[in-house]
Amino acid sequence: MENNSTIWQQLAYLEQKVNQNHQQLQELNQKLDQLIEHQNESPKAAVDTIEYNFEQLKIETLEGTLNIGLTPHQDLPFEQLDLPEESDEEVLTPMEQQIHNQLLPYIRKDLPKLFNQYVDDQEIDIDSKQKIVLIQEIQDQLPKRIKEHTSNLQQNGRMIIDRDQVPALINHIKKEINQGVQIYLEKLKENHNES
After folding, report:
1. pTM for the complete prediction?
2. What is the pLDDT of residues 11-32, one digit of tens each?
3. CA separation for the pair 74, 158 (Å, rounded)
4. Helices 166-194 and 128-151 meet at what angle, rounded to 10?
5. Where does this protein have coiled-coil stretches (predicted)?
6. What is the widest separation between alpha-carbon atoms in the chain?
7. Which residue has the higher pLDDT, 6 or 86?
8. For residue 160, which of 19, 47, 56, 180 sits 20 to 30 Å off, Cα-Cα?
């Protein structure tokens, strides 16, 4: 009789263990379903503008493999790639914002006129879409360029430029933009003449 009761106890214990395992399995299935649902709902990785200055390179022979951003041995499919959301926009100080606001009209109004004049003087063949893209690129890069110039004028994290020096800095950036456009157009003309 005692043997029967031990068997029943063992059966009850095994039944309890089976129920616990079954409950754990259900919880894992729910977690798996949640992870799959979360993965399906999460936004896919998107890459915005990537800027390369190929006109500055002279390549004779190009061989090998170029891996940008991921190592070749990484077994992570792109669908599972989750990139942190970072803003590409530069946060400008009030003085930098003032410089930016003073340069925008120049880029939007004066630069296209200078651009057209230079294109006409040098007889460069460029369509209006290329002009628009180039001017938009310059406008998009402007906050970064301003940051670079003002960071050179800082000491111990504090700006060492007076308000009287702002016009000189603005003129310097304008000259830099003009030179960049001129160099770009000269390279474009050289490439067009070579082909």
Report:
1. 0.51
2. 888 899 999 999 999 999 999 8
3. 43
4. 140
5. 11-42
6. 113
7. 6
8. 180
